[in-house]
Design a protein that fits this description.
homodimer, alpha/beta, Transcription Regulator spoIIAA, five-stranded mixed β-sheet, 5 strands, globular, Bact_StressResp_Reg (chains A, B), STAS_dom (chains A, B), STAS domain-containing protein (chains A, B), STAS_dom_sf (chains A, B)
Chain lengths: 120, 120
């Protein structure tokens, strides 16, 4: 497992995080994603984390970084499928994912991205 | 990693295979998928295998089983994102995925599932 697949659906990109992230995997994902946003002119990035039971500050920072990268490439990032325990951990870690939009599931995330962009 | 997430998009379900499958994971996926097809009345199942560099007969059989399960629940399975090397291996293994539809990527798979069902 050396890279996380990025699926294109219209002008959205979907990333499903299923495995433990490590430095190299996170860097590769950032590279692949910025590359794909440019090639596909994607307007939105959905990051599904429903498979994650736990998160740490590394994952939290990675999501923030991806969101910031996407934003300066004019794409909006929505994190979907967060489990309740993960939400609790993120807040306890002091990672409030400022500027990152969230939705309960992929469908709601897709709906969110079809709306005109406003402030999160 | 004890289960593979199944994402719902309208009346389609999307499964992204990223990790090495083992017996228990495959069984859990079959259970989860049949359960989700029933609960969501899904008409199509997309299995993305773009992250897989290699496949063995175990994965090949799992895909065939999932497809057969979905079919008797009135859902069509499309395998998407197969890498060239994987296609070669499958044919060399004698696994021609009979009855399983394939598409080059998720978008084409979604388009295929929106067409009226015909024979693969």
């Amino acid at each position: 497992m050396d890279r996380i697949p990025i699926l294109q659906m219209g002008d959205l990109l979907l990333v499903t995080i299923q495995v433990d992230m490590h430095d190299q995997l996170a860097l590769t994902l950032q590279d692949d994603l910025t590359d794909k946003i440019q090639r596909t002119s994607a307007r939105g990035v959905l990051i599904d984390i429903s498979a994650l039971d736990i998160v740490d500050s590394f994952i939290g920072r990675m999501i923030s970084t991806i969101s910031a990268l996407a934003r300066i490439m004019d794409a909006t990032t929505v994190v979907v499928g967060m489990q309740p325990a993960v939400a609790i951990t993120l807040v306890e870690l002091g990672l409030d994912l400022r500027g990152v939009r969230t939705a309960l599931n992929v469908e709601r995330g897709m709906k969110l991205l079809q709306l005109p962009a406003g402030d999160p």
